């Protein structure tokens, strides 16, 4: 599989969750676990550009596919780690509007925002709220998150599709 543009091989049981492979086997702890049951969206990642709950995806279904996690959004420093001085347009918008507070939902929200923006849908309040309906936030009341996605949608540079 490709993870954030890197070819990755893991030798694990086929039913191991993508979430555990990302966090424990690959050290990509930006993807969070909330409910572990597909209800909260904290574990959202892009699989071939589609938003999925990584807690529900067995790794055997990911072989040969493309995964993007929150670590794959910012630019990279020379050591290959995310360069936080090169945030992508959605991350910057969340910072600007205050769309992130405790941060637990934020990686999943960012990935949901990317999936929404890549869909080309009109960024209305209603459409955005529908797009993030599977991502729960206990802190922000959602308004600042919606504002961030609107801001990103109107930014000159659009985020990558996958
Ligand atoms: S941890 Fe996957 S949906 Fe909640
Ligand atoms: S910012 Fe805390 S759960 Fe969303």
List keywords for this structure.
Ubiquitin-like (UB roll), alpha+beta, 162 residues, 2 domains, DNA polymerase, domain 1, 9% strand, five-stranded mixed sheet, binds FE2/S2 (inorganic) cluster, globular
State the helix count: 5
How does the major sheet shape up? Answer: 5 strands, mixed
Shape: globular
CATH homologous superfamily assignment of the largest domain:
Beta-grasp domain
- Structural class call reads alpha+beta
Distance between the first and last residues' Cα: 13 Å
Strand residue content: 5-15%
What is the number of E strands? 5
Give the count of structural domains: 2
Order of helices and strands: EEHEEEHHHH
CATH uppermost class of the largest domain: Alpha Beta
Say which molecules are bound, naming each kind only once: FE2/S2 (inorganic) cluster
Helical fraction:
25-40%
CATH topology of the largest domain: Ubiquitin-like (UB roll)
* Gyration radius from CA atoms, angstroms: 15 Å
* CATH architecture classification of the largest domain: Roll
Strand numbers in spatial order across the main sheet: 2-1-5-3-4
Low-confidence parts lasting 5 or more residues at pLDDT below 50? none
């Amino acid at each position: 599989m490709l993870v954030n543009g890197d070819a990755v091989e893991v030798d694990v049981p086929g039913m191991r969750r993508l979430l555990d492979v990302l966090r424990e086997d690959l050290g990509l702890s930006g993807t969070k676990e909330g409910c572990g049951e597909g209800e909260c969206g904290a574990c959202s990642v892009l699989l071939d550009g589609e938003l999925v709950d990584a807690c529900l995806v067995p790794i055997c279904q990911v072989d040969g596919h493309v995964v993007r996690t929150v670590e794959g959004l910012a630019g990279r420093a020379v050591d290959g780690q995310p360069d936080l001085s090169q945030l992508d347009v959605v991350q910057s918008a969340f910072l600007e509007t205050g769309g992130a507070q405790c941060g637990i939902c934020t990686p999943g929200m960012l990935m949901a925002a990317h999936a929404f923006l890549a869909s080309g849908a009109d960024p209305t309040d209603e459409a955005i709220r529908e797009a993030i309906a599977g991502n729960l936030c206990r802190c922000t009341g959602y308004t600042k998150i919606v504002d961030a996605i609107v801001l990103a949608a109107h930014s000159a540079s659009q985020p990558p599709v996958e």
